[in-house]
Design goal:
Layout (H helix, E strand, L loop, with lengths): L3 H23 L2 H9 L4 H25 L10 E5 L5 E3 H15 L4 E6 L6 E2 L9 E9 L10 E9 L19 E9 L3 E6 L5 E6 L4 E6 L10 E3 L10 H12 L4 E2 L5 H11 L1 E5 L10 E2 H14 L3 E3 L16 E2 L1 E4 L1 H13 L2
Parallel strand pairs: 3-5, 11-12, 11-13
Antiparallel strand pairs: 1-2, 3-4, 5-6, 6-7, 7-8, 8-9, 9-10, 13-17, 14-16, 15-17
């Protein structure tokens, strides 16, 4: 008689754990977006459909990468140079084409703007009703592709303002607070999608057996301070003295660890989970830096701010920067609030 309650408690615990597991397994990306918006309105369904399209692009890219070493013509360079003056990898071209193909079928996106294309790509058949623009970096860290290291895709969604009748997409030249969604896909040991629609940051992992991105963590909060600093120290002598002095500070201060993979999405994800700071400063010769505002820094800033962190050029918040051209570059300091503030103090005060 005395064991019956214990058996019952054990049975209830198992049932509760099973219920939680089933609930977690059922929370797909599209369902989660609708839950976040607490609506089945047309706008909510549009956003859910757009996130589904981004997820589909991620699945296709992940599948290609998983077989890259077994297929001819997948790895290496194309021999061409993109609008940024960078050598183009074959995976860059493939991933860019995947996003275009996937969104051609959406009916919702009129334009796609990518760091791989000089001008936006228009989908005329979508433009009469398509009210959205996708901005994206199809493959971030493509130098890692041939080495079987982690890399990612970065994306942002904006609502089209005006008719864009001249085809110049000038309405995109607004600050990052105009983004209605942003996130990244991380291609690593598992394929992970992290996104925000302005209601927190949430992560999903691709379950290959289901072909679905399944919710793994909601409302991620970045620690206020972390031990990790992530920067390419090979550029040390090209930086302004204030950045070099910050690096000297972390070198002589106990508790800091350097982590840098060459794939920004991978490094940013580590910072999101563990805390710390990622830096990609400008150089003396190129003070604007290397990273593109619309395709890289603004989407990541939107995400990190939603998680309680900060992103800045060192002088102003990334989300307040108004671009003058589609491919504008910015320096980036992003991560935990306290760590970003420490870097800013060196830039603004020299200590």
């Amino acid at each position: 008689m005395t064991q019956a309650p214990e058996s019952l408690d054990l049975s209830l615990s198992i049932n509760n754990a099973t219920d939680k597991a089933l609930d977690r397994d059922c929370t797909t990306l599209s369902r989660h977006v609708l839950q976040q918006l607490q609506s089945f309105s047309a706008d909510a369904q549009d956003l859910s459909a757009l996130m589904n399209r981004i997820a589909l692009a991620g699945k296709l890219v992940a599948r290609r990468m998983s077989r890259a070493g077994l297929m001819e013509g997948v790895l290496g360079f194309t021999g061409e140079v993109n609008v940024q003056g960078e050598s183009v990898k074959k995976m860059d071209v493939y991933a860019n084409d995947v996003f275009i193909s996937v969104f051609k079928q959406s009916g919702l996106v009129c334009r796609l703007a990518s760091e791989e294309m000089e001008k936006p790509y228009y989908i005329p058949e979508n433009c009469p009703i398509g009210r959205y623009t996708l901005l994206y970096d199809p493959i971030d860290g493509s130098s890692n592709t041939d080495n079987n290291l982690s890399l990612g895709s970065i994306f942002a969604i904006r609502q089209q303002e005006g008719t864009d009748s001249d085809g110049k997409a000038t309405d995109l030249l607004t600050n990052g607070r105009k983004q209605i969604a942003a996130g990244y896909i991380l291609y690593g040991p598992c394929t992970m999608l992290v996104y925000s629609i302005g209601k927190g940051v949430h992560s999903f992992v691709l379950d290959p057996s289901l072909g679905e991105f399944i919710l793994t963590e909601e409302n991620i909060q970045i620690p206020k301070h972390g031990s990790v600093y992530s920067v390419n120290e090979g550029n040390f002598w090209q930086w302004e003295e204030s950045i070099r002095e910050y690096i000297r500070y972390v070198h002589r201060t106990e508790g800091y660890s350097a982590r840098y993979s060459g794939a920004m999405v991978s490094d940013i994800h580590r910072i999101l989970v563990q805390g710390g700071v990622f830096l990609y400063p400008g150089t003396i010769q190129n003070p604007e830096g290397k990273l593109r505002l619309l395709y890289e820094t603004a989407p990541l800033a939107f995400l990190i701010e939603q998680a309680g962190g900060r992103a800045t050029t060192g002088l102003m918040d990334i989300l307040d920067v108004v671009p003058k051209k589609l491919h504008q570059r910015t320096p980036l300091i992003i991560g935990s609030k306290e760590d970003v503030a420490k870097v800013e103090s060196f830039i603004q005060n020299g200590h």
